[in-house]
Amino acid sequence: MAHTMYSKLQERPFKYMACYDLLSKAPKWHDYNAAMTKKCEQKKKPSPNPLSPLPASLPSSTSADTVHSTLDASGDGTARGEPTRPIGWKKAKVAYQEEKLDASNHEHLKKMATAHINIAEVAKKQHTALASAMSAQHSALERLADEAIMNKDLTGADDDVKKYYILQRKRIIDRLEQEMATPTSTSAPASASTLASAPATVNHEK
């Protein structure tokens, strides 16, 4: 066998027969020769073909339908088994920084909104206090002016001046009557007493 193989491969006869006769009887050569023979036999055996026809007992249409239904139900067979790849350290760091920045911006905007609300409330209170103070000041000035008119000494004044002050005093008394009558009805007696004394002063000046 070895001679024939050598002649086919080298296209010439084997010349070293003395070496062959000596080595062909060694156990190592027999083991090698047996292994090579077994390997050649395994190569000659037909390998199972994945596209081989189905057995006669099973219709081909049924198998094809089963395969298609299995693929349709599972989708891509390789896609389902593939694990999702985790993000890298840099991407995770960037995502964490962006999330932290969003939280910081949200907290900053919240504080700004709270500060604006507080400023608006303080400004409203200041405006109310200022309006109240101005109203009180205006009332005080008006009261001083009324008292000056009511206490004006008309001795020696001509008739026109007396008539002017009489009309001003009447206007003041009418306004006071309205102010006293508007809040409660209990202030009416006080208003009546005030009116009772006021005309007496006017008549006395006449």
TrEMBL record:
Positions of region (Disordered): 39-86, 178-206
Taxonomy, superkingdom: Eukaryota
Pfam families the UniProt entry points to: NAM-associated
Domain No apical meristem-associated C-terminal as annotated: residue spans: 12-172
Comp. bias intervals (Low complexity): 54-63, 181-206
Protein name: No apical meristem-associated C-terminal domain-containing protein
Organism the protein comes from: Puccinia graminis f. sp. tritici (strain CRL 75-36-700-3 / race SCCL)
